[in-house]
Design brief:
Layout (H helix, E strand, L loop, with lengths): L1 H27 E5 L14 E5 L13 E6 L4 E9 L4 E5 L2 E4 L2 E2 L7 H10 L9 E4 L4 E5 L9 H4 L2 E2 L3 E10 L5 E3 L1
Antiparallel strand pairs: 1-2, 2-11, 3-4, 3-11, 4-9, 5-6, 5-8, 6-7, 9-10, 11-12
Amino acid sequence: MKLKKRYLYSIIEMIVVIVVTICVFKFVVIPVRIDGTSMENTLHDQSIALINGIGIKAENIKRFDIIVLYSEALDEKIIKRVIGLPGDTIEFKDDVLYVNNQVTPQDFLDMNFVNESKITYNVERFTDDFKVVVGEGEYFVMGDNRLRSTDSRELGTFTIDDIIGMKGLVIFPFDSVQWLE
């Protein structure tokens, strides 16, 4: 009888551990595999990151945060950088970002990568010129590799409900471990 109880408790413990683990990796710490080059030279294809899935509120999202969102048009999770916040006017002119008519430096971009990309793809601009007004409750996102990113320029803006997680830690490959802000 004692042996049966011990086995029953062990099975219950395993089930609880499995359920808790699934919940943690579904809602709290979301594992994401970077698929593609849209976030080069910040994130690399096939890297693995653990993304924070809690605290997703409008007041917590800042310009240039890296976020994971669900794209209905692509039917997949994508990882991008927030460029425009609700109500912003975003304009790119001659590779310069203007937010609400103010020049806004993009210090996260690796200028060597930008210049090499322009040479590789034989283009004059890393980011084509455009202007967009971001609606209330919407976010305009772009990949860091502007020449190879499907983002808000094609997909449109996203809402807070589309955001799955933000910030986190790249854990693989080991030589690329870094915090994502």
